Amino acid sequence: MSEPFYRAVRWFGGRIFRHASDPLILHAERADRSGAYLLAANHASPYDAPLLCVATPRIIYWLSIAEIFRHPLVGWFLRGVGAEPLERSKVDTRTVRVIVRHLRAGRVVGIFPEGGVRSASDSVLSGGAMHDGVCKLARLARVPVLPCVVLGGEKFARWPRWLPGARTRWAVAYGEPIFPREEPDRDAGRSAMTGEITRSLRALHAEVADHV
Predict the structure, then answer these.
(1) Where does 112-193 show beta strands of DSSP type E?
(2) Cα dihedral angle (46, 50, 178, 176), rounded to 10 degrees?
(3) Contacts for 14-20: CB closer than 8 Å, 24+ residues apart
(4) How far apart are CA 207 and CA 212, in angstroms?
(5) Whether the Cβ atoms of residue 112 and residue 42 lie closer than 8 Å to each other
(6) Which CATH architecture has domain 3-211?
């Protein structure tokens, strides 16, 4: 990643979103905590990551699916803003090592634990399941998970929503950090932590859903 490039993209994107939208950001101070953490968000739209970059005070190193890196220009841009490709079809030890290295260096890593864009009916926010990989990473790197809900990104699929003054409503809400459980039974610990993250995401959703 080039931090100046990331900051430039965030500044430019932030100006566009500010002119076209009316965001609601809740508990941003939780995301501004020092030290490493995994930012774990629901995933309803391809615009979720850009909105989180604009809303989050810290620089985010993203973990994303390998398929979108296959276009050379897209891959170059994503790597420039700190994204790492993850091969979902196998155990991707190289990417895991990179992510753990970022976390041990005190950085923030963003991840969508649902594994891809979900419809409203399939979302973890409305009863769907999430993968426990985020809990495995948290335990491996010994860092907390910060649950986060982002809503309204799908509205930007329609070009009028980008117009200055459109006041497109979207929201981001950050939860309290959830720390990995030090239990002898690792499977039980991951299951308990996954449940805790899921409950936090749903509570945050209830807090902001009526405002988007």
Answers:
(1) 145-151, 168-174
(2) -120
(3) 14/54, 16/162, 17/50, 17/51, 17/54, 19/164, 19/165, 20/161, 20/162, 20/163, 20/164, 20/165, 20/166, 20/167, 20/168
(4) 11
(5) yes
(6) 3-Layer(aba) Sandwich (3.40)
Whole-model pTM? 0.90
Question: Can you give the residue ranges of every domain in the chain?
Answer: 3-211
Q: What is the CA radius of gyration of the chain?
A: 17
Q: Which two tokens stand for residue 52?
A: 């989180």
49-105 pLDDT, tens digit per residue, is 999 999 999 999 987 666 776 777 766 777 777 777 766 555 567 778 888 999 999
Residue pointed to by tokens 């985020």:
134
For residue 195, what are its two tokens? 């449940």
